[in-house]
Amino acid sequence: MLVGVCDFPGSYAFPAAGYGGIERWLWAVAEGARAAGADVHLLGPGWLTELEHDWVRKPVRLEDISTGSLAERELRDTGYDLLVVGHEYPSLPAWTRTWSELDCDVATFQHSPVFQHAATAFDGRRSRLYCYSPEMIERYADHRPIPELAVHLGLDEEEPPATPGTDLVWLGRIDEEKAPHIAVRAAQILGRRIRIVGPVFDEAYVRRHEGLFSADHVKWIGELGGPAKTAAIADASVFVYTYARTYVEAGAAVFGESLRAGTPMAALTWREGTCAHAALCEETGAVAVVDPREEDETAARRLADAIERAESLDHQRVQAMGMQRFDLARHFQAMSARSC
Q: Is the pTM value of this prediction over 0.85?
């Protein structure tokens, strides 16, 4: 099988070193396809040039190719079986025009809870959309979505063997939508230290919760990538996951990252059918479902209970299940089933 993994014209590098959803997912698919025995081409100019030593890299984007051009003929003659793309591409007329000239499938994963696709973007067979959770499946029902857990991988983020950790960890972008202040309060209730890893996206949000974020039990780590990011997760006793009441998580990378590192998760959700419910089980984490009408203090206390439940789990068992559930090759094979 010949697979083309198309870059995405965003602001993160390919492969991403720390953050970036689509970019990390595309790199995981490329690695997974290779692990499954497929030949892989990296399409688009966004991929790091040093990858040319180990990968076939073709710096061309389908939306830039003219009808009847030599580039179009070369692309068609290459004989791709599957193109894997960011979720906007199948709704871009210029991209789909070129793709229609190729005898291959296209697959993508829904990384946004709000992006509106063209009505004809997916048929569920030759063009396929994958969604993480029952919540996302319902939101994109018109496009025949297929349930699948997204696997993400950054550059040099291979996981070490699991060991029991010490402090709690929260990782992500720091803003109102991700609501890390609730994780900080839950840690405070338990008398535990918590490490906050990630870039500050909203300074005003941090100032509003300054009393919590400046407390002695909180350690600010900043943005990490590569081995340092993986170590921050692996060295924790529990990964604490939060988000705001109105936010919809399309396919959080942190579930796979934490479980593959052997760190159990305590997740706060405001409804059933979320990414946390899709990713976790009783052997890998604990989920606290809180009525969104409840105050933050109630949510923090429920989350604290979940942290205590998650802390009793075996890290090696968590890692074994994480490696199976978020396996790179398995993920690619699930997405390429019709093309095989």
A: yes
CA separation, residue 112 to residues 116, 204, 249, 314 (Å) = 9, 24, 8, 33
Rg (C-alpha) for the chain, rounded Å, is 20
One-letter amino acid of 59: P
Distance CA 43, CA 226 (A): 23
Tell me, rounded to whole angstroms, the distance of Cα 62 from its chain centroid.
Answer: 24
Burial of 191 (0-12, 13-18, 19+ CB in 10 A): exposed
From the list 166, 200, 162, 169, the residue with the least C-alpha distance to 183 is 169
CA distances from 334 to 112, 130, 186, 247, 329 (A): 21, 10, 37, 28, 9
Q: Do 184 and 194 contact (CB within 8 A), yes or no?
A: yes
Q: How far apart are CA 25 and CA 31, in angstroms?
A: 10
3-state SS assignment for residue 11 = coil
Q: Render the burial of 25-42: b for 16+ CB within 10 Å, e for the rest.
A: bbbbbbbbbbbbebebbb
Phi, psi at residue 32, to the nearest 5°?
-65, -40
State how beta strands 56-58 and 105-109 pair: unpaired
DSSP state of 200: B
Alpha-carbon span 62 to 98, nearest angstrom? 6
Question: How far, CA to CA in Å, does 36 sit from each of 177, 236, 323, 334, 340?
Answer: 36, 31, 15, 11, 11
SS3 333: helix
Residue 288 pairs with which residues in a beta bridge?
268
Q: Are strands 105-109 and 127-131 parallel, antiparallel or unpaired?
A: parallel
Cβ atoms of 230 and 206 within 8 Å: the answer is no
Question: What CA–CA distance (Å, rounded) separates 71 from 145?
Answer: 32
Alpha carbon of 270 to those of 98, 216, 249: distances in Å? Answer: 42, 28, 11
Mean pLDDT, residues 4-26 taken together: 84
Q: How confident is the model at residue 225 (pLDDT cuts 50, 70, 90)?
A: confident
Is it the case that residue 319 has pLDDT exceeding 60?
A: yes
